């Protein structure tokens, strides 16, 4: 069952690139000074994406219902970093819809991805890390599973079935049966889509955060993933909560008294965001 790594690399390189508008915007937001008209004109080149961004900006997630009528309004009210997050989320919604396999339940996959993005953003907010990068990393953390499922559905199905039957983490089952796991494959996708190294590293290491060192997005996504499973935001029939690294948990510095409010906030934001970002055509 071992998958050919060179063939997988070709599969990743063959994935549709992120829209040119998104790539340009990702570069623009890294600059210290960018003219507002430059951003507005760049995003207006993709009308469908602009509509999705405005829909999201006016969702209950941001509490701005009816106040954002143009991309210029979105920038003025939300700021460039927040707008960038909206654009990436909207674009990834469209990209994920193109990668539809046979083994993953796409509704559950998408719900978990959005839930992890929400949880990662909340954790980053509490710990002072980049909220938008955390959101993006959370949204992308399992994209490697989607690539295997869309290109090698039989092997993906066998890995999923073996993991559930043996009560083995999916990541371990993938590596043992397929010779690669979704974290490594996901990092390839992130490099193909030209995401920053902190996002790519978070995808690659979110199941195995380092035993020592400073807090990074790897810890954020690792804990966010576990929280999302614990809340069963995916509504999956065989939900299992992965273990949490004690080192990663310690680096976050969360107190037990904070958890009820944190979990409630994640659930509330997830419901608002999912209503806007859910795939246009949900799988049965």
UniProtKB/TrEMBL annotation:
Domain HDOD: from-to ranges: 15-209
SMART domains: HDc
Gene3D superfamilies, A to Z: Hypothetical protein af1432
Xref: SUPFAM superfamilies: HD-domain/PDEase-like
Listed InterPro entries: HD/PDEase_dom, HDIG_dom, HDOD, RNase_Y/CdgJ
Transmembrane region(s): none
One Pfam family recorded for the sequence: HDOD
PROSITE patterns named in the record: HDOD
Top-level taxon in the UniProt lineage: Bacteria
NCBIfam families per UniProt: HDIG
Protein name: HDOD domain-containing protein
